[in-house]
Amino acid sequence: MSASNPRPLLVYFSRPGENYFNGGRTDLAVGNTKVMAQLIGELIDVDLHELQAADPYSRDYDATVARNVREQDEQARPAIVGPLPSLAGRATVLVGSPIWNVQIPRIMRTFVDAAKWSGIRVVPFTTHAMSGLGGAVEEYAQACRGATIAEGLAVRGERVRDSRPAIEAWLGRAGLR
Ligand SMILES: Cc1cc2nc3c(=O)[nH]c(=O)nc-3n(C[C@H](O)[C@H](O)[C@H](O)COP(=O)(O)O)c2cc1C
């Protein structure tokens, strides 16, 4: 048995580069989900862990859309750099990602499917262009065996930096601040 760790863990994936922005495109120096994860890190005492793809996603939007379609079709588990974070001893794990084709990127499944979720409370969040949480909550509910799934929060990518009050309120509802 490992000692319990009272601090929540936040595991996220985010891709910098060309992306959707108010109907057009922009080049994100830092991905929207990473901005949100860092904001959460300013608001609560949490350990942040960023998932990095062993084969990095292109900064090109269309190339990433095409790769994601392939990975969804194949139900791929894209490899992740370095060891996956252990959930041992954690009571709460926040999981965050963009929405890709109305689902979570397949790399989230690489992590989720390898982790031991029994007894853990999962607090999901997404950034997105229009799809909200998409299928994220259902997918975590199905894949995180033995976990309970708390209320999720979806923030439009363009609005992340303005969304501190909504994020604070959501963390409060989750009992995290
Ligand atoms: C491959 C790809 C697919 C996307 N699919 C969707 C989608 O189905 N619905 C949506 O609302 N936004 C979609 N988006 C937009 C992203 O979810 C949004 O820009 C998000 O904030 C990006 O987060 P990131 O910068 O952390 O990667 C997609 C973006 C990419 C690159």
List the helices and strands and how they pair.
Elements: E1 9-12, E2 17-21, E3 24-28, H1 32-43, E4 47-50, H2 61-73, E5 92-98, H3 106-114, E6 121-128, H4 136-143, E7 148-149, E8 153-156, H5 164-173
Parallel strand pairs: 1-4, 1-5, 5-6, 6-7, 6-8
Antiparallel strand pairs: 2-3
The site of flavin mononucleotide (FMN) has 24 residues, from strand 2, helix 1, helix 2 and strand 6.
Structural class: alpha/beta
Number of strands: 8
Radius of gyration: 15 Å
**CATH architecture assignment name:** 3-Layer(aba) Sandwich
Helix content: 25-40%
Stretches where pLDDT is under 50 for at least 5 consecutive residues are none
CATH superfamily name?
Flavodoxin domain
What CATH calls the topology is: Rossmann fold
Query: Count of helical segments?
Result: 5
Hetero groups in this structure are: flavin mononucleotide
N- to C-terminal distance: 28 Å
The description of the largest β-sheet is: 6 strands, parallel
What coarse outline follows from CA principal-axis ratios?
Answer: globular
How many structural domains are formed by the residues? 1
| Mean pLDDT reading | 96
| Secondary-structure element order, N to C | EEEHEHEHEHEEH
CATH domain class name: Alpha Beta
Strand content: 15-25%
